[in-house]
Design brief:
membrane, about 15% strand, binds 2-acetamido-2-deoxy-beta-D-glucopyranose, 5-stranded parallel beta sheet, 18 helices, single chain, globular, alpha/beta, lipid biosynthesis
Length: about 425
Amino acid sequence: MGIGSEAAAAKLVATCLVGGAVILVGVCCFYYSSSSMGEGDGLLWERWKQKLLLKKKKKKKKPIRVYMDGCFDMMHYGHCNALRQARALGDELFVGVVSDAEIIANKGPPVTPLHERLIMVNAVKWVDEVIPDAPYAITHDFMMKLFNDYNIDYIIHGDDPCVLPDGTDAYALAKKAGRYKQIKRTEGVSSTDIVGRMLLCLRERSSAADNPNPKHSSLQRQFSHGHSHKFDEDGAAPGTGGGTTRISHFLPTSRRIVQFSNGRGPGPDARIVYIDGAFDLFHAGHVEILRIARDLGDFLLVGIHTDQTVSATRGAHRPIMNLHERSLSVLACRYVDEVIIGAPWEVSKDMVTTFNISLVVHGTIAENHDFEKEQSNPYAVPISMGIFKILESPLDITTTTIIRRILSNHEAYQKRNEKKGASEKRYYEDKTHVTGD
Ligand SMILES: *[C@@H]1O[C@H](CO)[C@@H](O)[C@H](O)[C@H]1NC(C)=O
């Protein structure tokens, strides 16, 4: 107690000293300016006082805490962009992730279980804290909990309408309380669109049901077993026939890439770790391997393979997400420092030198394991230099896992998709110029 009051006294003295100095400087300035400019004393004094008050206010300002919620099922860079915009409306972003039970009750089973969705949301670099048991719609009780227990200032949501089953606005309560803010929907991507890209093959198969075509059953086999090179030899690339589902409205701009970037290079003595891959349908398995890779150095450089490279190694229907979409998803991850948008398949000596790479890593759970058998191993150079390391992947998930999960439920999704697809089509038909970030 004695120490406490002593410290307090010291603080008071310090405050008085600083305050005195400020007043002294203030008086000098006041004297100087009033003598040189001859302005009215009162006016200048008022201005000075206002300036001081303003400074005080700025210093004491408590951080604005904003809240956004969602299912974050099949998370994509559109979700990340929404979180980025939400974060920009405050100083701290809390994110509510809807539980599996609530999603099942409101729109059917999620593709991604809660623990994976939590990994994904936690890894987004604009997220400060995650609330793992958010309700599907904000109830009065939950809103009070947000305001009183979590000290949330504003609830944020996109400008797409969010209607409850009973036809009411899910954010009506927050709007009424004057604590609602809106952000722009990210153009060009939606889960519906992504599922559509995957379901295209199955649609082609079902439309040919009257006239059974062995090629179409091979399409299904392709998806259910992952690798069937027969499909590739057929050359029946999805998207080339009847491709009404595979629409991507995404137009990458340089500004979006900048918004997602850290805008920093490695420090002078940074140990640079390199990892490459397709990073298609960015998932919790990717996040976990990136986290471990980042721990091995000071700067994580991620090489994203081109669409051509991915198609050549995994089949014509891959990647589901194009190079720029994949780059944005990886860039939004907090463990990533920089990406190479279109990395070569082979890690060359020149690359290692140019980027000063200290270590090249690769996860045990990956789809391109064939490289070990190939005569031209893409990691031959780092292996020969003794800077190659295989990392134990914490999660047993690949892009194929995600595709399989979606397709195992595909009928339910297709129904949902058609309904949602129609409303999205309306959105794009009705849409006019969109401003905002
Ligand atoms: C290259 O990386 C090493 C760490 O592995 C670091 O010590 C060195 O300073 C880096 N070189 C340059 C030129 O940044």
